[in-house]
Amino acid sequence: MSRVEAKVQQGQGWQSLCSRQDLVANSGVVAWVDGIQVALFYLPGEPGDKQLYAVDNRDPKSGANVIGRGIVGSLSGNLVIAAPLYKQHFRLDDGTCLEYPEQSLRTWPVRLHGETVEIAMG
Amino acid sequence: MQPVVQRLRTGKGAWNRKVSGAFFCFENLIGLDRCSMNSSVATLKNPQTLIVIGNGMVGHHCVEQLVERGALAQYKIHVFSEEPLRAYDRVHLSEYFTGRDAESLALSGVELYQQPGLTLHLGVPVLEIDRQRAEVITADGCFSFDKLVLATGSYPFVPPIEGAEGESRLVYRTLADLDTIQVAATNARRGVVVGGGLLGLEAANALKSLGLEAHVVEFAPRLMPVQLDDHGGLALKAQIEALGVSVHLSCATQSISAGDEYRYRMNFTGDEFLETDLVVFSAGIRPQDALARQCGLELGPRGGVAIDSQCRSSDPQIFAIGECAAWNGSVFGLVAPGYQMARAVAAQLCGEDSTPFMGADMSTKLKLLGVDVGSIGDAHGATAGSRSYRFIDEATASYRRLVVSPDGKHAIGAVLVGDNSYYDALLQYVQNGIKLPTDPACLILPQGEGAPALGADALPDTATICSCHNVSKAAVCAAIDDGCADLAGVKTCTKAGTGCGGCAALLKQVFEHELTARGVVVDKSLCEHFAYTRQELYSIVRVEGIESFDELLSKYGKGHLGCDICKPAVGSVLASCWNRSITDPLLVPLQDTNDTFMANMQKNGTYSVVPRIPGGEVTPDGLIAIGAVAKKYDLYTKITGGQRIDLFGAQLHQLPDIWSELIAAGFETGHAYGKSLRTVKSCVGSNWCRYGVQDSVGMALVLEDRYKGLRSPHKIKFAVSGCTRECAEAQSKDVGVIATENGWNLYVSGNGGMRPRHAELFATDLDDATLIRYIDRFLMFYIRTADRLQRTSVWRESLEGGLDYLKAVIIDDSLGLASELEAQMQLVVDRYECEWANALNDPEKLKRFRTFVNDKRSDPDIHFVKERQQRRPVRDTELSLIPLFEEVI
Predict the structure, then answer these.
(1) What ipTM was predicted for this assembly?
(2) pTM of the model
(3) B854–A65: do the CB atoms touch at under 8 Å?
């Protein structure tokens, strides 16, 4: 069972966010979900259930909503996003910060349903 | 001064009464310790007064050491210099003719002498010393002293030759002498130096730099008779003559008369003669001991102030250091022993233990006219029973001699001509008594034949690495243990390598060896995805014609994604090589956020926008257009240091609209967000300025237009000044251009910022086409070889071979790269397009410029407040003050 399916089975509903066309490959965009800013990262080169990530857009260090504009990369096997202002790295799958464990980003299940990007806010 | 006044007011009642009438006058005078006040001031003196006569290299070093040891807490120091200039580097004097000016030759910044309690009197010779009254008498009045240090140096010895006067009796010692030589060299074709020693050959180099046909006339039968033996002298002569300097040995000049073909004729013994337009005497130095003679100090048998091993003269209050001093009858004409004396005196004056001066090693390593010359210890094999090994290569005129002790176990001297790479190891063998290998000859045989390298580990802890600053291997190790993680840190911390610089290679070796010994691996990988340096990746990209990150990663990297280190670095390399638009979908994910959105992100996530204003020239309409955009979008507006206008506070989704309007008004992107050419700053130049000699704005426009958009390892700044007054501050830029009567002087590798560096003069009087050709080559060579995020200043300092090497590559095309570099630049220039114009024409590219992909609103968390009539990001502490109903942008 995939990570996403596991969470959904716990009773979260999917809602559609945008289309695949709105995403930028190997980079990020930001969506507005009921007052929450969600950064979406699309990695078409990854295996099917690891292509799409949704994390908090707010950078805890600067307080600015900029995470969606960082650089995606991999460090020691972790897929990470580098925050654009102070360059600290957050793991895309669980939002933990590699440099400052006390900081972290919220993450949400997200999937491609056909050409539609769907998120489960829970 | 304050404590003295305090004592006056509160201390002894008698003093209060005595001075009260003239109190202000007294206060003014006490600062200078004028001897007119001496009688009343004497008992009040605290601090004491220390006078240093002479501000040459040694006098300066003494002051530096005094300050470093906290002498200003005890002494008020007055330094008198006969010359009108702050201490400068006499060792590299001939570079004055190849681009270095007085300021760049200066040994320290002016700040050293601006400290309270330290006064430098420039151009004020001391006329007399009155030991009875403990005063020195100068043209500016007399000054009393408690302690006196003589550092008056030496003067050139000119043998009495009939007819030698004016331009047939020039000397080579000070910058003023060099100015005189330069004047004499105008309209001259040939110049002769009398004296084939170290200084004489330096002087010949100077004449050669001035474009004269240079000749050296030496009385002895060989060049550098003190340092070299016969074979060494021969090899050096052969090399120097190959460089176009004529050498005349065993020639004694009898008289100088008017010449037929040249201005003068030098007549030698035996009817021989040589004609010339000027004569420079460099036949040795004499200690400048006139003041010591006048005040009756004891002198050495061949002149010089006689000193003991504490550098004290016959008057215990007076010290003498450097070339004016004679220890054990000998005068030491090198800078290292002078520095040793300076340190000894500074330590004593500060009440510290000092290392007594017990003579000095006169080993020396030089580059004379570009030829390596080294002399170590007993170079002539004068020690009874000593034996020598010699290597003679007549094909390249190289010569090496190793002198060993009678038992053959230790090296005691060496001579090198043609290749100084053997010097460091040989010096260590001699100085530290290291046991010789079984076959000592291998130490001077051409390398690559199994010579056991004397690694840094073979050196004992006591081995001197830097003799100028007396830094031992142990001191270098201690610096590393105290946390100096790079060579620059070790240099700053220990001063090693900051004197003559001769130990640079050895210092680097020791440093790297010690790091390795501590288990520190110097890993040069770019990041975990590429085990290559930026330079190596650049070559791979170029040679294999790679145009995408994915291709490079799959062929030469690890993983399939990269990271925030390698992606922008490779993105920059790809752009430098092929200059495809950074808005290309394959390139977009590589860019740092600023490049991706073609604007500079500020602390609250908004952007600043900088339209290009080439050369800082803008029409009123252009200015109005920028103003209109700034007003419409309520952007905070500020003039930058690069003569353009920065507009702050734009949100992501506003950028395309802002740029459409700016482009419609004729602007293009300013690349303020990129590691690329930023601006070409200029002064107004000859069109308006009464001093301007060229159209600096016109040139700035040409340069900015040519190099705009060029991606590079770091940002690049240019400036063009229209005359030598340098109002555009070109000498602090990566590329600086200064107009001359005949064209342009090119300066390179300057920097402002955290570690300011003056740009170096690279080439002079260039025409427009040559200027651009050199800049093309310079920039492309930098892009090709620099490290990631390395500015041209640091890159230039890291280049082995330094400025000369860079000149050889760029000007003389020593690597045969010039046409390739120019072609690469032309490709980049031809492919230039305004990235913003490109993005605006492509709806696909614009979709990234949305704050939210599924909602039209702005970021509701961005708040501004007004300050000085403009808005700025709200501070955390101000957030609670914002009314909840305030409309957000």
Answers:
(1) 0.90
(2) 0.52
(3) no
